[in-house]
């Protein structure tokens, strides 16, 4: 296996010191190393397209190549600035992409992964080929990292454009997990989800965001012996859950709808905060643990933001920040029953159960059940 420290050192040896990206579970041991590293400039971006743009800016100012890391699902977000700005046919900006390959394929088959990674896993290399980005696949047996990085960097300068390292699962050695700081005055995310389920009517629809939030919602339905038909799990398309909820609420004016969002997800496509209150009518609940908890706990910019104030400015009629578990049930009950669009930000602790299950039924079956529940 590759020691992420060696991988980082090889990049540093190649005089690369600008890093940006959106965290990924396959890359988490590398991503986590970048935090608080005084030798480098590192920005955890809000989406992969923005990360590409940060690297473009850094290159323009320094003539030096940067690294952009992402999960392969983020390639979709990255494609526009890659193709319309960084490509050798436009501004010709060298950079190294480090892409975690969920749903990877080998010579014989595609490895088992969750439904949202199937298509993206299959097409990742083809996408890179299509947009002319040369790539090298690395895995747990990759050696001579210094050589690999030197070569790929040279290639990037030579073509005046991006190049990619595509990283297979389990390539990186596990480093120490970060220690969770628990704030006793807050609930954890799963406890908040359980509470919300206790407070809503049986017919309320829930659209939940990518990652652990959807998995915890699914598990809580099982624990409460409730069916899953009222839930749409936005397993992929991170950052789009609230616009899906908005679209549903436009068409189903009488339905009670809740979006269970994460801070990283809500910020990834924050423009939605302005569209939702203008066109939709639903309760937008952001479970704010100020981190990308699902992929390793890396901080989000929510550390520095009051998302409820942003919601107010964006036009939500009702906004609230819940910063303590004291009276939370009473407060939430009142909020959920209000008949106007609301943005409710609930601060909660980081962390999740290690034995959290995954949805079992086929994803198409779940879609059908959800659509039927809307009739
Ligand atoms: C476009 C895209 N980029 C990255 C990911 C990987 N990813 C899955 S969940 C997640 C973190 C979500 O953070 P947040 O919304 O704050 O929820 P939390 O995990 O903290 O509950 C990330 C980065 C993804 N699925 N899609």
Instruction: Based on Cα principal axes, name the global outline.
Output: globular
Count of extended strands: 14
Ligands and ions found: thiamine diphosphate
Q: How many structural units, i.e. domains?
A: 2
Which architecture of the largest domain per CATH? 3-Layer(aba) Sandwich
- Fraction in helix: 40-55%
Biggest sheet, spatial arrangement of strands: 2-1-3-4-6-5
Describe what this molecule looks like in 3D.
With 375 residues, the chain is α/β, with parallel strands linked by helices. The chain folds into 2 domains: 164 residues, Rossmann fold (3-Layer(aba) Sandwich), CATH 3.40.50; 186 residues, Rossmann fold (3-Layer(aba) Sandwich), CATH 3.40.50.970. Helix content is 41%, strand content 17%. It has 14 helices and 14 strands. Strands 2-1-3-4-6-5 form a 6-stranded parallel sheet, with helices on both faces. Helix 11 packs across helix 12. The model has no long low-confidence stretch (mean pLDDT 97). The structure holds thiamine diphosphate. The site of thiamine diphosphate (TPP) has 25 residues, from helix 8, helix 10 and strand 11. Thiamine diphosphate binds next to helix 8, helix 10 and strand 11.
Provide a concise account of the structure shown.
This protein is 41% helix and 17% strand. It has helices at residues 4-13, 28-34, 48-62, 75-86, 115-130, 145-159, 189-199, 212-223, 241-251, 263-268, 272-279, 307-314, 328-336, 363-374, and strands spanning 18-21, 41-44, 66-71, 95-100, 135-138, 162-167, 205-208, 231-233, 257-262, 283-288, 291-292, 298-299, 318-322, 342-347. Residues 22-24, 71, 73-74, 77, 189, 209-213, 238, 262-265, 289, 291-295, 300 line the site of thiamine diphosphate.
């Amino acid at each position: 296996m590759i020691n992420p420290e060696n991988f980082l050192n090889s990049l540093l040896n190649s005089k690369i010191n600008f890093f940006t990206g959106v965290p990924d579970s396959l890359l988490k041991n590398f991503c986590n190393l970048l935090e608080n590293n005084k030798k480098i400039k590192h920005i955890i971006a809000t989406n992969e397209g923005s990360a590409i743009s940060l690297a473009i800016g850094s290159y323009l100012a320094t003539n030096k190549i940067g690294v952009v890391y992402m999960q392969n699902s983020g390639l979709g977000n990255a494609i526009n600035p890659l193709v319309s700005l960084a490509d050798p046919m436009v501004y010709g900006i060298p950079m190294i992409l480090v892409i975690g390959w969920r749903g990877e394929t080998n010579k014989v088959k595609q490895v088992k992964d969750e439904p949202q990674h199937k298509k993206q896993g299959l097409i990742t290399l083809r996408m890179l080929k299509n947009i002319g980005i040369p790539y090298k696949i690395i895995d747990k047996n990759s050696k001579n990292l210094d050589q690999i990085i030197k070569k790929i960097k040279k290639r990037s300068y030579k073509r005046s454009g991006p190049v990619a390292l595509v990283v297979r699962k389990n390539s990186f050695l596990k480093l120490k997990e970060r220690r969770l700081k628990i704030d006793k005055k807050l609930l954890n995310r799963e406890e908040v989800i359980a509470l919300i389920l206790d407070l809503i009517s049986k017919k309320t629809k829930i659209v939940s965001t990518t990652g652990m939030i959807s998995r915890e919602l699914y598990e809580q339905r099982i624990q409460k012996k409730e069916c899953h038909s009222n839930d749409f799990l936005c397993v992929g398309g991170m950052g789009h859950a609230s616009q899906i909820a908005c679209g549903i609420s436009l068409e189903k004016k009488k339905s009670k709808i809740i979006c269970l969002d994460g801070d990283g997800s809500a910020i990834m496509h924050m423009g939605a905060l302005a569209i939702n209150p203008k066109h939709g009518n639903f309760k937008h609940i952001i479970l704010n643990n100020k981190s990308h908890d699902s992929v390793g706990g890396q901080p989000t910019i929510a550390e520095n933001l009051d998302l409820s104030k942003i919601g107010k400015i964006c036009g939500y009629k009702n906004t609230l920040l819940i910063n303590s578990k004291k009276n939370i049930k009473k407060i939430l009950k009142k909020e959920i029953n209000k008949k106007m669009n609301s943005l409710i930000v609930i601060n909660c602790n980081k962390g999740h159960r290690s034995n959290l299950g995954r949805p079992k039924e086929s994803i198409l079956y779940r879609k059908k059940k959800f659509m039927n529940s809307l009739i």
